[in-house]
Amino acid sequence: xxxxCLTFRDLTLGYGSHPAVHHLSGEVLKGSLTAVVGANGSxxxxxxxxxxxxxxxxxGSCTVAPGTRIAYLPQLSELDRSFPARVVYLVxxxxxxxxxxxGRITAEDRATxxxxxxxxxxxxxxxxxxxxxxxGQLQRALFARVLVQDAELILLDEPFNAVDTKTxxxxxxxxxxxxxxxxxxxxxxHDLDLVRRAFPETLLLARRPVAWxxxxxxxHPENLLRARRFDEAWHDDAPWCEPDEHEHPxxxxxSHEHGHSHGHDHGHVHHDHAHNGASRPPAA
Amino acid sequence: xxDLLVGPFVEFAFMxxxxxxxxMLSLAACPVGVFLMLRRMSLTGDAxxxxxxxxxxAGFLLYGLEIVPxxxxxxxxxxxxxxxxxxxxxxxxxxxxxxxAAFYLISLALGVLIVSLRGSSxxxxxxxxxxxxxxxxxxxxxxxxxxxxxxxxxFVFWRxxxxxxxxxxxxxxxxxxxxxxxxxxxxxxVLNLVGGFQALGTLLSVGLMMxxxxxxxxxxxxxxxxxxxxxxxxxxSCIAGLLLSYHAALPSGPAIILSAGVVxxxxxxxxxxxxxxxxxxxxxxxxx
Lengths: 284, 288
Fold this sequence. Notes:
By secondary structure, chain A is α/β, with parallel strands linked by helices. Helix content of chain A is 29%, strand content 23%. Chain A is built from 9 helices and 10 strands. In chain B, α3 (13-38) runs parallel beside α9 (137-166) and α5 (53-63) runs antiparallel to α6 (67-91).
C-alpha cells in the first residue's frame, strides 16, 4: 500500500482575511505526479507556498510526511538575475540540503552538479553569468538545481511559462524521469493539453478545490465550466466563513458518497473515484 | 619619491596609526559594501550612518570625546534602527527602503538634538567628520576587533549571504537561515560604520564601504574577486588619501573618500564593464 507524502486537512491559505485556497482536504500519495490547474488567482501558487511552509495556514493543516526533502521551484520573479553569479553556482545552490552552510563541497558533489547541467542540456554554459541567459536557459538551469537537490517531493510553479516547445518537451521528460524514480511531483500548469498528455493526476482549483483525481475525469468539461464560473475578486464585505457553514450534513469526516457530489456549491474535493486514483480523501 | 610616498609613514607615528586603522577598516568594510550593493541596499548604508548619530552623541554627552562610550552608544542606536526597520519590512507590507528612511530620520533628528544640548558646533563637526590622524590605542584595538569579527562572520555565513542575495525564496525553502542572515548582515553594517566613525566620522565612514564596492562592480562579474578588488581599492584609497592629506594639508577623511571617488569615476569610464569598453565592443560582432 502506498502511503501519503502530503496530507491536507481542511487547509485554508490566504492573505489578510481573504482565503486564496479554501478548505482543501486530501492526500497526495508518494510517487504520484499531479498537475495543479485553474484560472489566474485560483490559489495554485499559494498552495505550493503553503506546502513549502513559506506561508502559514489560516486554518487547517498541511502535513508533509516526516523525513521528506522538498525541492521548490517558484515563479521566476524572486531570482536576482543581475547578481554576479555563474550558472554552475546557481545549480550548486541545490547542494544546500546536503552540505548546508559550512559543509565541504566534494569532488563528487561537483560531478553531481556537472551531471545535472548536462542532463538539462546546458553543457558549455557552466561559466556563463546569469544575466546572459535566455528565459528558457535559466529555467533549464533551475531544473538542474532541482535535480541536484535530490528531493522526494518536488514542487514546480508554472515551470513552462515563456519556454519554447522543445524546452517544454525536455523539461516534461525530466519530470517523467522523476516520476519514474518514485519521487512525488506537483506541477502548476496552464496548458490543459500538456496536462492531459503528461500528468496522471490533476487538482482543479478555483480557490476551493473543484475536482481532484485522475486527469481525464478532473478535466471533464463539466468541472472546467464550474471552475470558470469562479469569482476571482476579493470582496471586503464577503461574509465570514463560519466553521459549520462548509460542513456537510453528517459531520466532519469527509467521507463523501460516490456519485452525489456535484450538487454542492461550496465545499470539498469531490471524488467520484476516490479509491482508484493516486489521491484520495482522508480515511473515512 | 621616497619622501613623497614612504617618508611620512616612516617618520610619524600618527601617520602609522592612521594607516593601520584605515587599512583594517577597508579590510572589513569593503566586502560588506559589496554585499550592500549587490542587495541594492547601497543607500541603506548611508541611512545607517545617520542612524548611529544619536547613540554616539549620547555617549559624547555623558562622557565627552571618549571612543568607547561613543562607540557603544552608536552600536546601540544602529542596532535599534536596523532591527526596527528590518522588522517593519519583514512583518508588515512596507518595504525596507521606506521603513529605513523613517527610522533613520527619527534617529538623526534625535542625534542633532542631543549634540546641541551640550557642545559647540566644533564637537558636532568632530562626530560628523572624525579624524583619522588622532586614532589612539583604544580606537585601534576597537577597529582591529571589529575588523576581525566582520571577516570571521563573513567567512562563516558566506554561502547563506550569497544565496540570500541571489534567490531569497530558494534559501527560505531549504533553510531557516534567511531572516537571521539578513539581520546578521545589518549588524555587520552597523559594526563597520561604528568602527569607521572615529576615523572618518559618521557621514563619511559609509564612503569607504560603498565607493570601492561600486568601483569593483565595473571590473568583474563574480563575487569573490569583486570583494578582493574592493579591498584593494580601499587600501589604495586610504594610502593615497593619507598622503594627499599630509602633503597638501587637507582633512584626512574627505581626502580618503575623494581618492576612492576618483577610482570609482575612473572605473565607470575605463573598467572592463565600463562605458568606454561597452562602446568599443559594439563595433564588431561574432557570427555566434
